[in-house]
Amino acid sequence: MRTLVEGMAHDAARSGFELESSQRQAAERLAAFGAQVTRRRRALPRKPPRSLYLHGPVGRGKTWLMDSFYGRLEARKRRVHFHDFFRKLHSGAHAVESGNGPAIQQSVDALLDDVEVLFFDEFHVHDIGDGMFISRLLRAAAQRRIPLVVTSNYAPDDLLPNPLWHDHFLPTIEAIKEMMDTVEISGASDFRRYPVAGTDPAADSGAFRSGRIISPGTPRQLGRLGLFQPTPPQSRVLTPTTQPIVVKNSDPDLLWVGFEELCGGLTSTSDFLALAETFRTWVIDDVPSPADDAASAPAWQRFSNVVDVLYDQDITLFLVGAGPLDWDVEPSGTALPVDLARIASRLSLLSRSHPDKDMDSEEAAGS
After folding, report:
1. 258 near 282, Cβ under 8 Å?
2. Which among 59, 114, 146, 161 could disulfide-bond with 192, CB atoms 3.0 to 4.6 Å apart, if both were Cys?
3. Is 25 helix (H, G, I), strand (E, B) or coil?
4. CB of 240 within 8 A of CB of 275?
5. Is 63 exposed, middle or buried (0-12, 13-18, 19+ CB in 10 A)?
6. Would you state the pLDDT for residue 334?
7. Which helix (H) or strand (E) holds 260?
8. Which helix (H) or strand (E) holds 26?
9. Measured at the alpha carbon of residue 142, what is the angle toward residues 181 and 144, in degrees to the nearest 5?
10. Domain 206-357 belongs to what topology?
11. Where in the chain is the domain with CATH 3.40.50.300?
């Protein structure tokens, strides 16, 4: 146990920071969990360790801690991200029996096959349909005696916050609390926005961090970044899954698409994940100002999913819009997503391009 804690502390030191109090407590709880997994592998106790639910505000190092522990745990293990989990779940179901119950169960079983521990990053539920799939996964893991390590920005009681559906999810929330120990990581700082002086805990997201928020998006601004407005003949129709998307350009490594086309229609997270497998640089232009009511709630939620996918896949993102692109706004009473804080934290990693400043003097977003 002590070796695992020291190992995670060593990983932190290599990244240029020290574990703060709640991170160290979480590291100790993870290490105790790891010791139980190791003892179980040696067939001493057969009872599985209790699953862990790591939660807290954005940017507190939950994913970092989980990944450090994951890299040091000697076990048959699998790590999945929320969005990628649902893509695999749906694609597996369609491949088997067009999405009926048994097919979904087979997809869940495939996820759990030959693992001793399942790691689940960015656990959140905003849709009752997704909640049903989560319930099925938890039941299957319990039946197979497979413990989970989960990270979330939400405490269990706050999952599926939509009041129209929250009561329907209460049995699953109770099941989560019954099978998992909750561990809160709640340091004072969002390390993505305000890293400790001389540190860079998010350095693993190098490509994403190299992107820019560009406003108002003049040709000079774009040209300084090697970006040139596509011409109409460069437009293409892509079909990443089932939904056609009209993009402005799709060079071998660059995707250029308008906000309304990407987020305003019927695209899904599966489309974003499929596109992310091909294009390592994305330009999304005509992004409306979050302070305006120019986009619908579904469009902003799709935008939130896009940011999640590109951050997780470490893809370079350029956002271009005429108005002020500031996501540090109050979402209450607007169309902005309820998990806006997570998106604002991630976009704070992008530098801002100003029309009258050279690249060397550009300000970091959120600074």
Report:
1. no
2. 59
3. helix
4. yes
5. buried
6. 64
7. helix 259-263
8. helix 21-41
9. 135
10. Rossmann fold (3.40.50)
11. 2-184
Q: How many residues does the chain have?
A: 367
Number of other residues whose CB lies within 10 A of the CB of residue 250: 20
Question: 131 and 172 in contact (C-beta within 8 Å)?
Answer: yes
Residues of the chain under the 70 pLDDT cut? 1, 43-45, 88-103, 188-205, 330-334, 338, 356-367
Domain 2-184 CATH (choose: 3.40.50.2020, 3.40.1620.10, 3.30.390.30, 3.40.50.300) = 3.40.50.300
Rounded to whole angstroms, what are the CA distances from 83 to 13, 88, 143, 169, 272? 30, 9, 24, 19, 10
pLDDT given at position 359: 45
Q: Provide the 8-state DSSP code for 364.
A: B
Transcribe 60-121 into DSSP letters: SSHHHHHHHHHHH--SSEEEEEHHHHHHHHHHHHHHHHTT-HHHHHHHHHHHHTT-SEEEEE
Q: What is the pLDDT of residues 311-325, one digit of tens each?
A: 988 999 999 999 889
Query: What pLDDT was estimated at residue 116?
Result: 94
Please report how the helices 21-41 and 62-72 are oriented relative to each other, as an axis angle in degrees rounded to 10. 30
| Residues 367, 361: Cα–Cα separation, whole Å | 13
Tokens 């071998």 locate to 252
Rounded to an integer, what distance in angstroms lies between the CA atom of residue 301 and that of residue 319? 16
Q: Is 260 within 8 Å of 299 (Cβ atoms)?
A: yes
**What confidence tens digit (pLDDT) does each residue in 199-222 have?**
444 444 589 999 999 999 999 999
Q: Round to whole Å and give the CA distance between 122 and 343.
A: 12
Dihedral sign from CA coordinates of 137, 139, 145, 147? positive
- CA 299 to centroid of chain Cα atoms: 18
